[in-house]
Queue: 3 jobs
Job 1
Amino acid sequence: MKDIDTAEERPPGALKEQRYQRHSLIDWFDQEQVKRARVVVVGAGATGNEVLKNLALLGTGHIHVIDFDRIETHNLTRSVLFKEEDTGRFKAEAAAEACRAIDPKVYTTFETGDLWETLRIGDMKSYDALFCCVDNYEARIRLNELCLWARVDLYNTAIDSRYVCIEQYPFSRDRGCACYQCNLPPSAYAKIRERYSCGWLRKKAYEEKKIPTTAITASLAGSILCSLFLQRNHPGGPQGAVRLYFDTISLNSTVTHLSHQEECFCSSIFHDSHYFKVKNVPGADYARLLGSEESLVLSLSDKLVLDVTCRNCGLSRAIDDNVRRFDESLALCGACRTHSNDITIKDIITLDELSMRFSRKAVPVKFMHFTRDDTQILLEMEE
Ligand SMILES: [Zn+2]
Ligand SMILES: [Zn+2]
């Protein structure tokens, strides 16, 4: 995590009081609560810029920005925090710096890596909210899962050039709360599958169709989302999981209360799971770590490719690695040069098999969980 703030550079307290003087005239505005708030914003694109700008103007205590991408010229029509000379810089870094320029008292940190690799569930537990400002279903699904485990409130957005969609999932407060995936239509999963072949192997030449957005839809999403966060304890605010659709042409809007679906994967995440951080030890050590129940069933955060076996020539080999490290070329048999490999992919494994397959190497997953005596245990791997 990079830090661009230093205590010495903070302006004196008196200035702060003047700065927030207008907020203090609003009966429901609790500046101290805003100052105490710790939030993470994932995605510093069009919507992320607007969310960050608002959070900084409001005087949010700590803002952590995550985005792996760099600024391109075409981003400048929708990104209030970026200047032309920022082109080529990391979005997260430029955005964090701009937030601090808005209000030097706002403590800003940033990360330029992949969200799945950089966001630790253990760290997320200390945040009040996660703002999901990404532009694809897959990243939203991943953030939804991380927020569910960490019990952090999720504020989600999706925009195009006309429509604004914002959602609130108060996971920290509402036990029976719907999650992002509870009401996700099959078309979303179909869209995700377009990127993969044979189920979970990335297509080599897949170019994602970009959805055009404008500063108008981005700023609406950013302001309504921050308003929801700001008013999260207001008795007049929407309760539970809620979605708002707004049409910037007809000005029609709809608010939908999202209901929890019992068959959704989120039902398997206990509200009171026990969290442990573990050194990423070799798989064989888990038997010692977890006791000697070889039949213990572990659910993994990531899918693992275990073996490939050629249907044509019969050649078989063990892979034992994270599916994210491979693409569709894994179907090609190295011996007979035909695309005949059957690939074994698993994300549920017994302790026995895990110990055997990863006897001397680390298990390449982000976290794993299992249930013992009606207690759910979550193990997050340390780097
Ligand atoms: Zn769900
Ligand atoms: Zn073969």
Job 2
Amino acid sequence: MKYLDEYRDRRAAERYAKLLQALTRHPWTVMEVCGGQTHAIVRFGIDQLIPAQLSLVHGPGCPVCVTPLELIDRAIAVSRRPEVVFCSFGDMLRVPGSRGSLLEARAQGADIRIVYSPLDAVALARQLPDRQVVFFAVGFETTAPMTAMAAKQAQTLGLANFSMLVAHVLVPPAMEAILSSPSNKVQGFLAAGHVCTVAGFAEYGPLAAKYKAPIVVTGFEPLDIFQGLAMLVRQLERGTCAVQNQYARSARASGNQAAIALVREVFEPCDRQWRGIGPIAESGLRLRAAYASMDAEQRFQVEGVVAAEPKECLAGEVLRGLRKPHQCPAFGTLCTPDNPLGAPMVSSEGACAAYHRYHR
Ligand code: SF4
């Protein structure tokens, strides 16, 4: 298969594994930011082929995992209102809130529908003028342009029954929060190639220089990850901290200018709470004043939401690279995909789900 088999070639992977053995002379801890990369690493056994001195920790790049618990509780409360049709990506339905999930709310009668695009929710609002259609807008820089497009389309159509519960987050502020933490162990990053394809990676340079941590923009196939690791380890061994682009077939420093302009037109940066991690300044997006009438938090005032994480869940430590999923005492016992305690065990991009699925 063109453009896939090339990146999964076993012999080339073995050559990269040998190269990494030769390059790695000191112990290093590096983080892959994206949950998709985490799944590729454990699915293809990359973590078992790299030198023991090279420790891969898993980052906060799973949008479902970092959506604040309080917002999930709020989403459930909004979805229970009789006039509401609540639209969400499927992954969000099983994520546990403080007292149940959206899936449980649906079983109890809430009108919750899975959509594959925010534009599907706009189409639903057109079809159902007597209902209030609410879209749960989660995700990173990759999904924000489509949400922005939905907001513009709903405004152009004059839809008064469409709104959004916005939980969009931005990757670079989260990387800075990890690097600036006193407990940080991360010495270099594999940055998420698809995020950089949309948003570019120009702002990574100052981050790499400030914290003396090399950053390699990296794709998602096994050879992408091996090559990204080789570029990163070369830098770590030499003591350099540049931003390099392994994913040159897709990502450019300037990103996709049309998508960036669209997001800037509809959203503005705001401080945002990250589930398990806490507040990170300027790490989220909120609707600008021209679109504020579509803000579901304002349209549906929900009182008395008090979010409480189960104390057994150590997702925050997993998402900051301080602990691996199997080092959580609840992993595979109290917490399984059928009975998840935290979002990383539910999401298709969650690190705990990856470890459980591929028996780490
Ligand atoms: S294994 Fe479960 S309880 Fe432990 S950190 Fe992961 S999601 Fe939380």
Job 3
Amino acid sequence: MFDFIKDNLILNDPMLIGANISILLSVIGIVFILTYFKKWKWLWTEWLTTVDHKKIGIMYIIAAIVMLFRGGVDALLMRAQLTVPNNEFLTSHHYNEIFTTHGTIMIIFMAMPFVMGLMNVVVPLQIGARDVAFPYLNALSFWSFFFGAILFNISFVFGGSPDAGWTNYAPLAIEGSTGPGINYYLLGLQISGIGTLLTGINFIVTIIKMRAPGMTLLRMPMFTWTSLVTAFIIVFAFPVLTVTLALMTFDRIFGTHFFTLADGGMPMLWANLFWIWGHPEVYIVILPAFGIFSEIISAFARKTLFGYKSMVISIVTISFLSFLVWVHHFFTMGGSAAVNSVFSITTMAIAIPTGIKIFNWLLTLYKGRIEFSVPMLWSVGFIPTFLIGGVTGVMLGMAAADFQYHNSYFLVAHFHYTLIAGTVFACFAGFVFWYPKMFGHKLNERLGKWTFWFFTIGFNVCFLPQFLLGFDGMPRRVYTYGPEDGWTGLNVISTIGGIGMGIAFMILVYNVYYSFRYSKRETTGDVWGNGRTLEWATTTAVAPHYNFAVVPEVKGYDAFWLMKQEKQKEKIEYKPIHMPSNAGTPIVMSAFFFVAGFGLVFKLWWIAILGGIGVLACLAVRSLRSHKEDEGYYVSVDEILKTEEKKEA
Ligand code: HEM
Ligand SMILES: [Cu+2]
């Protein structure tokens, strides 16, 4: 046992020793603080066992921000390495690990959970529901994401990280990579993927079945619509990932030959299966972002969203097309001219519904009474930036041209323009917009504007030069280059931009602290004063755990806006509200998934089996109990009155 730890703990690099020490110190610090302030019980009852969708959403967002930090540090390390030619700051091996973990973490453990966090907080409120359809399942979703992320992340200090790119192409990932790194990738994604799939199912049922009376499908807010479509994409795409990861896990751990070069394996099968999941995946993070921008633009322009129905039609079209374009990720890997042409056309077709949406946003802004608050800045900043991403996407989508661009820095610039301007801008926008709903006060506007400008300028300074580097022939995924290549100047500029984004992130974190100390506490539910959708209709700034004292009645699109127009003041009669009780099994079961995954990573069978038994035991506990004991509880009329009266005070 001791030898196992000694062999796998990575201590050969000062940077990693530093990481080990700081992780150890943080853990000791957290344990100390929780014990000193006697917060363990509070942590367990209020957070770890909660089934409240808003708290689960907040935990998703916190985890995503921590992962943004981790992925961001990776990014800055890579930029540091590439700033000057022949740099020896990182070795090639270390560089491979870092771009792999950077990509994987940013997409799987940052963008997706951030979006899901916002969905969790907002969607039930927007449809006037008390919670999601399956609150227990929701907790399980979060915890399996969380433990999947932890499993992936410990590879950094224990055993070595995956190093075959976030696409994890075979046969490189099977025959080309020894050590446990790729196993961490396979099992970390598998465990968190369970959570994602469950979330997809949960949100489909929630949105279809739990809408308040009067909220027809075509009265649903745009963010709810995009969440629904996203949930459908998840349910169709994630089973593909599950099977694909399982097959490669067999290849790596049990010696099967699905994706190997030898013994009849087919490496191209991996590429196809990966991207059949992988392309829809980028829409899983971009469609909710479109929803967020729609809400914010219409709120701060004080106008109904322009072209609502065409918006709905275009997101449904995009979701459908997203499954028909995967081959554009390997135009150069020997597909016939006919195959490449078909996928070229489907790829470019996505630009049409996307263009419709851009025009709708612009027309919503047209003649609006625009207020440039921080969420609005992110939303307006998104439009031109995303346009660059989209146009370069169409350039890449032309199969013949892609032979020139692919695997160059041009591609890197393209997908950062879509992923960052699309998803990350939206996460920041939604975070600031809904922050008062989560924590009862706004974030500071001035600091928020600093974050916005540092980030947006830094982002463009970082990635615009990369289009040029791509034209100049710089390949992606190289750890160094020579002075004679002539790429130094643009790389220096790019790194400066990267630092700008890092500063923006630090201002954001400081803003959270600063606003917690100094921001005015909000008492009304409609803190921006221009809320249009039902999440602003709860009378308290932080929506109480039961959400609505009385289920609202929806009279049209922009339900809350219409309610405010009417201003009815009838006497309301409260009734006791039934709520589900807390549950400890989701976190325990996910911890066992982690144990099982860890055992498989190192082929330590007894640990794997132990974890498996633990999972089964939790399932058994849950199913034996669910009939009798899990009856939930009632929120009394007294408590509702007390909570709702806070507003008048
Ligand atoms: C606007 C429509 C879009 C088009 C036409 C498009 C097209 C493409 C094409 C053709 C490639 C492959 C390039 C190559 O390897 O030769 C690619 C790569 C990529 N795209 Fe997009 N894309 C679009 C939108 C997006 C969005 C919205 C995202 C994410 C939110 C995204 C994320 C990515 C990523 C991560 C890659 C890199 C794949 C790799 O590692 O090889 N794209 N895109
Ligand atoms: Cu794609």
